[in-house]
């Protein structure tokens, strides 16, 4: 089972408790971004287009642990930016593990071998290495040669030391099903503990706007990939129902509050992918965000999104409500033939509101009003 049994049981029990308590909205995964700074500049990334004073900001250990306590989600995904640039990342991980959290530390792996001695294998901890396909696919995606080989070397080093290692893979419209299938075979040979796969989200500030997938193309691509994967031992670190959704067989609405984001701006509205505003506290985020304004069919920026950060929580909640359905699809795999589920109409979506520059200006004004903190990075 790619998702560890103890994690599956605890997350499932957590979801059941929320349902029994009558909670309509609750978090599953805290998306923690302690910094935006990165040592790569990927063409499809919309997370690093900030002035240096903002890129120099860091969440402290105390900030990160307080966010986990405030949110209460059982899983924490530490993203960025590149988290391993944060000098206090080992203390952040230790503090989260002491709180019983399941941690996925996302990294491009350029610093991973150098930093391995600062971490210890733990049943609730996994490295989550960014790897967008084979050597040529990945190096093209990150806009730099040689990154794939360094990432694979780091993966092997981490596995040799007993760490759980997963990869996260983002696909664009240049993806070829046969090559993706061959890459998935390679993840099996590497002994990876799971792959988190998703179509790319069309970040408005990403340098490359030409190669994001629309929903129809995403479904067709994943059907072609999954068709090739039958019987090949691929491990996905995702719900079977989310994979079935990617193949066009489930009609899901987005659950943006399922993976709330805390970063240097605050609690991000409405999700990890969209910075449409920020709240000072998690309670404020949950209670004052107009959630019905977002998601496919509601908002133009969400029209083509099928990303795990919005839809994985929907799939997990569906699996808890319908365990036999989940078990059936988990055993047989996603359906790759026949009619797809009806898609969500875009007829009534509201137009996009471009607010990035306003948030940057507000943050820069705040920073100019006080001394800049020391950069907690190497």
Automatic annotation (TrEMBL):
Cofactor(s) needed: [4Fe-4S] cluster
Keyword line: Iron, Iron-sulfur, Metal-binding, S-adenosyl-L-methionine
Entry-linked Gene3D superfamilies: Aldolase class I
GO molecular function: catalytic activity; iron-sulfur cluster binding; metal ion binding
Domain of life: Bacteria
PROSITE patterns recorded: RADICAL_SAM
Pfam families: DUF3463, Radical_SAM
InterPro entries the record matches: Aldolase_TIM, DUF3463, Hopanoid_synth-assoc_rSAM_HpnH, Radical_SAM_PqqE_MftC-like, rSAM, rSAM_sf
Keyword Metal-binding in record: yes
Radical SAM core domain boundaries: 20-232
The protein's name: Iron-sulfur (Fe-S) oxidoreductase
Organism expressing this protein natively: Acidisphaera rubrifaciens HS-AP3
């Amino acid at each position: 089972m790619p998702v560890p049994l103890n994690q599956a049981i605890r997350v499932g029990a957590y979801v059941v408790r929320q349902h029994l308590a009558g909670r309509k909205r609750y978090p599953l995964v805290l998306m923690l971004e302690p910094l935006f700074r990165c040592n790569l500049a990927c063409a499809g990334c919309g997370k690093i287009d900030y002035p240096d004073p903002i890129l120099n900001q860091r969440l402290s250990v105390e900030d990160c642990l307080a966010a986990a306590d405030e949110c209460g989600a059982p899983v924490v995904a530490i993203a960025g930016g590149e988290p391993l640039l944060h000098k206090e990342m080992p203390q952040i991980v230790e503090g989260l593990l002491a709180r019983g959290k399941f941690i996925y530390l996302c990294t491009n792996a350029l610093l991973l071998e150098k930093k391995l001695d600062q971490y210890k294998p733990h049943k609730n901890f996994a490295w989550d290495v960014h790897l967008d396909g084979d050597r040529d696919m990945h190096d093209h995606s990150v806009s730099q040669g040689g990154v794939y080989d360094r990432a694979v070397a780091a993966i092997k080093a981490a596995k040799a030391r007993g760490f759980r290692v997963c990869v996260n893979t983002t696909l664009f419209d240049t993806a070829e099903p046969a090559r993706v299938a061959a890459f998935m075979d390679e993840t099996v040979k590497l002994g990876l503990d799971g792959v988190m796969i998703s179509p790319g989200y069309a970040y408005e500030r990403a340098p490359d706007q030409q190669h994001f997938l629309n929903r129809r193309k995403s479904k067709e691509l994943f059907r072609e990939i999954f068709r090739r994967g039958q019987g090949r031992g691929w491990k996905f670190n995702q719900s079977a129902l989310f994979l079935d959704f990617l193949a066009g067989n489930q009609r899901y609405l987005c659950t943006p509050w399922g993976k709330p984001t805390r970063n240097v701006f605050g609690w991000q509205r409405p999700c990890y992918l969209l910075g449409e505003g920020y709240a000072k506290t998690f309670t404020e985020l949950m209670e004052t965000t107009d959630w019905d304004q977002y998601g496919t069919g509601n908002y133009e920026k969400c029209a083509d999104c099928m990303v795990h950060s919005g839809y994985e929580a929907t799939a997990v909640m569906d699996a808890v409500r319908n365990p036999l359905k989940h078990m059936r699809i988990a055993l047989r795999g996603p359906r790759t033939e026949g009619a797809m589920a009806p898609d969500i109409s875009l007829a009534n979506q509201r137009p996009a509101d471009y607010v990035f520059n306003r948030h940057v200006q507000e943050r820069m004004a705040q920073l100019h009003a006080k001394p800049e903190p020391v950069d907690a990075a190497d």
